[in-house]
Amino acid sequence: MTSPRRTFAIISHPDAGKTTLTEKLLLKGGAIHLAGEVKARGQARRARSDWMKIEQQRGISVTSSVMTFERDGITFNLLDTPGHEDFSEDTYRTLTAVDSAIMVIDAARGIEAQTRKLFEVCRLRSVPIITFINKVDREGLSPFELLDEVADKLALDVTPMMWPIGMGGTYQGLHVMGDATDALPDAVQEEVELAGAGYPEFDVEAYRNGDLTPVFFGSALREYGVDQLIEAIAAFAPPPHALPAEPAPVAPDYPDVTGFVFKVQANMDPNHRDRIAFMRLVSGTFKRGMKLTPTGHGKPIAVHSPILFFAQQREVADEAFPGDIIGIPNHGTLRVGDTLAEKPGVRFTGLPNFAPEILRRVALKDPTKTKQLRKALDDLSEEGVIQVFYPEIGSNWIIGVVGQLQLDVLLSRLDAEYKVAAGLEPSPYDTARWVGGDAGEVKTFMDQNKGAMAKDRDGNPVFLAKSAWEVNYIAERYPAVKFAATRER
């Protein structure tokens, strides 16, 4: 029997309409009852998934939120990914927790840089994609240009499932491909017939294998095509399936409860200083109060108050099933990458840390707040917002991030949530690499390069390099030492 769960993410370039589409899906699914007026900038541009202060100010999503809604007997778990290019690390981890994705493309702009990057992450993990070409009620590229661009730039077969009757000022509605074309204007009828002959028929297996994308046209803002999109996710998107793990992949029908933490979020409710670990349930039937053992420290924890997310509302979950995302309140015991299982011995793979591309020192404005700063940096590194490196020589902690916006989020949250005023100073280093390999060779290398060595928050040795050139130079000098740009927990 097919599971009634669909766990999916929405990916797009900033401003393609992802936040608006998220809101309309929640509205159609009954998870929210009032659509906010979505404007281009400022306070009004806030779907229910955008809750952090910096998001409200900038009108962008910088955290991945989870929203669950139900429609026609199907439970939809929507994971909202950050829309800003600087948050590729958080987005990557979110895409490890979904079974499919919706790719939103602006009809006027076609495929943009960030869309392409996110698509490559989906391809890496064989995540099937439904394409939604948004804003057809505005002037844009022709449907044929858009379809051919998806096919050419992403090397995907495309099957139009709908066809716009006019675009921009001439837009009159949407035609379902395969329906009779008698009532269509002659020019549109000709387009539909040409498209029907020129593009492959929809093949659900090719879609689920990541070789073909069904394409829907519409306008999230005007709610054109949104119902058809939800129906397509229900009908075609894959239910939960086996996920990569050691010693072997884990399928949903595996009897024990297993899952993995792909995100940790602190202070979602500022009144309670809470800390939620988001766990993707992979197998078994989870029951409230159940004891699960995390790979991180091996001591079972009882999950007394698991949370299901309905837009900004939360409900305590009495039970959950494979594909569901549950929030587990904890006090720093759970971290990104942890596997949780009824019995130890299983570890899910594929949730890496990435080498930072920007390194900075944190400068406290009030030196008496050192303890609060340490706590804040620990919290934020557990969430995956930043990485913290502790140099072997000197006391200045070094912050590593993948993109500039993470630094803005760091300062904003230090101030808003921890009442720590801080600034950032240049660091003498440009990038970092995790050090491994032969133990004797590693010790020799570390002894000879003490001034450039640090430890990450797990105590792993890290080489801080002044440039990519230095990384290559050092790697050639110490061939028995491995310098890794990613590290799995």
TrEMBL record:
Annotated Tr-type G domain residues: 3-241
Domain of life: Bacteria
Keyword Protein biosynthesis found: yes
Keywords: Cytoplasm, GTP-binding, Nucleotide-binding, Protein biosynthesis
InterPro entries, A to Z: EF-G-like_DII, EFG_III/V, G_TR_CS, P-loop_NTPase, PrfC, RF3_C, RF3_dom_3_sf, Small_GTP-bd
Database matches in Gene3D superfamilies: P-loop containing nucleotide triphosphate hydrolases (3.40.50.300), Peptide chain release factor 3, domain III (3.30.70.3280), Translation factors (2.40.30.10)
Family: Belongs to the TRAFAC class translation factor GTPase superfamily. Classic translation factor GTPase family. PrfC subfamily.
Function: Increases the formation of ribosomal termination complexes and stimulates activities of RF-1 and RF-2. It binds guanine nucleotides and has strong preference for UGA stop codons. It may interact directly with the ribosome. The stimulation of RF-1 and RF-2 is significantly reduced by GTP and GDP, but not by GMP.
UniProt-recorded name of the protein: Peptide chain release factor 3
Organism per entry: Sphingomonas floccifaciens
Source taxonomy: Bacteria, Pseudomonadati, Pseudomonadota, Alphaproteobacteria, Sphingomonadales
